[in-house]
Structures are given as C-alpha cells and as structure tokens.
Amino acid sequence: MYAQTLVLDRAYRPHKVVDWKEAVIKMFGGKVEVICQYDEVLTVIGRNHLSTFPELKRALRQVIGTDAESITIHVPAVVVLRKRLRSFKAGVKFSKINVCLRDSFSCQYCGTQLPMSRLEYEHVVPRDQGGKTVWENIVMACTACNSRKGNRTPEEAGMALLSVPRKPRTLPLSGPRIQFEGAPVEWEPFLQTVA
Predict the structure, then answer these.
(1) What is the tally of structural domains in the chain?
(2) pTM for this one?
(3) Based on the domain organization, do 134 and 160 belong to the same domain?
(4) Nearest 10 degrees: CA dihedral of 8, 141, 126, 148?
(5) pLDDT by residue (tens digit) across 135-177?
(6) CB 3.0 to 4.6 Å from 131: which of 15, 114, 125, 140, for a disulfide?
C-alpha cells in the first residue's frame, strides 16, 4: 500500500505530500477533493453501516453529492485543496527551509540550484571569528563551496557572495521538493508542471 498522498493547490500545482490517513480525514472534512486514487481498497461501506451511522451518511453525501447504497473507498493518491492558499509566509522564523527559500535553493557562491538535502548552512563570518547563526550571517552553500571557503570570510577566501544575507519580511510559499525518481505513477502528470 502506498503511504503518501500528493496534495495540490487550487491551480493543480504540488503543495505538499501527506500521509494517506491525513488525506482521508481532509476528504471527509470537505477540505480536499480526490483527483486520483491508488488501486488499493481501504474499505467498502455497505447499506447497513450507512444506516447505523447517520454522520457518515451525511459526510458521504457531501463528498459524493448524493445518497449511496454502498461506497468503495480507495487510498487517495492525489487530492486538490478546495480553499485558496496564501502566496506568502508572514512572520518568518529562522530555519533551514526558510533560508533555502530566501536563497532560492541555490549555493550563494557558485549559484548551483540543489535540493535542500544537498545544501548546507554557511557562516559568512565564521563562528570562531564571532559569527552568529542568524539571518544576516547565514547563506546556503553547496558542499564544495563550503569546503573551499573553510574557516575564512568570503574576502579572505577570495569568494564573492551572490547576495547579501538579510532577514526577509515575507517569503513565497514553496511547493514540496519531490524526488521524481520513485514517485508513484499516479503523481506523474502533476509533477510535470514543476519540472
């Protein structure tokens, strides 16, 4: 059984990946609409169960739009949110994902764009020279550039920063960084929009 569900925003762009159980809860809560399902059947709910659980019958009526004699529920593969998302994060906290968003998932020395797992915090002013782990002193760097710079300032290492690190007031919301290899075949049409 597949353990994850791809969640799309209202423009059908990848928003995040959630556990399939969370997707089912959102589905019955009316927060998402199922676009694509896995072949695996979660359950078959027959007439007897529907008549003894009026809440379930009402929830199903909201999801499928009519009363049903029975319903077969499959594991959701892809769902789309029913509500619009904000396009910016406000009140930005210092974290690796937020520094990556600020730096466009790019090394701030060579400009190479990489997944978050291949980027490292880089202290512009090294810690042993009094540099702190704060917005204004941290940039994302690839391993090669981080090693080359070593325990020196960019000037001492002869390396130029592509941008001056600052604390952002807002950040754009970013879709998930999904590894294309190994993604379920049901996700493929929606991942092509971010390739």
Answers:
(1) 2
(2) 0.49
(3) yes
(4) 170
(5) 999 999 999 999 999 999 999 999 999 999 999 887 665 555 5
(6) 125
